[in-house]
Structure formats: structure tokens, C-alpha cells
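Hypothesis: this fold can be encoded by more than one sequence.
Test: take the C-alpha cells below, design a sequence, compare later.
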């Protein structure tokens, strides 16, 4: 992937919070810690839009992840996609879509089969 590994872990954690996948939350929280992510940023991830500890790029990616995860009720808006295009390359956007879809699939597998 062309993306920062810590950003990917933050996305995996946030999507797993939305979907309620305890297994994935545990695994990706631990992975983020091992990569050097702070406890504070992990703990505040559920309220990322209300804090200044995440960069504009991280906030855009987290909003995008939420929209893709909740696509039937909160689809990606044109404004949101334009913001993504201003902050990420086309390749990075594709990599984000794939990563977000992958964690959504893993969440659903784990929730269904556990």
C-alpha cells in the first residue's frame, strides 16, 4: 500500500468500532500500539472529529472510512470526495477504498462466525 501503516490501523480500528467487531478492535489496537501509536489517539478515535490531535489528512480518511462503512445511510458526498482528492493521490484513494472494504469484510466474517 502507498499509505502510512498507522493511518491504516486507525481506519481499521474506527471501522471496527462502527461495526462492533471486538476481535478486530483488539487486534488492530494492539497492532497500532506496536507501531508506536499513542494510547491517547487510540482512545479518542471514537470522537476523532471533535479533537485536534488528528491531522487534516487523517480526519479526511476517517470521515471517508465512516462514509464507506455506512454507505446506505451516509454515502460519500461530492464535497467529501473533493477533499479526499485534495489530500490524497488517486492511487492512495484506491488503496483507502480497498483497505476500508477489506476491514469491513473481516468485521462481518468475525462477527458472523464468532
Amino acid at each position: 500500500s502507498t499509505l502510512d501503516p498507522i493511518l491504516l490501523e486507525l481506519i481499521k480500528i474506527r471501522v471496527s468500532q462502527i461495526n462492533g467487531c471486538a476481535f478486530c478492535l483488539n487486534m488492530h489496537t494492539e497492532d497500532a500500539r506496536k507501531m508506536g501509536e499513542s494510547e491517547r489517539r487510540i482512545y479518542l478515535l471514537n470522537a476523532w472529529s471533535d479533537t485536534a490531535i488528528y491531522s487534516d489528512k487523517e480526519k479526511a480518511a476517517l470521515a471517508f472510512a465512516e462514509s464507506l462503512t455506512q454507505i446506505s445511510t451516509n454515502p460519500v458526498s461530492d464535497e467529501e470526495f473533493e477533499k479526499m482528492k485534495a489530500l490524497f493521490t488517486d492511487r492512495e484513494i484506491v488503496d483507502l477504498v480497498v483497505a476500508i472494504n477489506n476491514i469491513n469484510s473481516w468485521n462481518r466474517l468475525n462477527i458472523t462466525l464468532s
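DSSP finds six helices and no strands in the chain. Residues 16 and 28 are 9 Å apart (CA to CA).
Hypothesis status: open.
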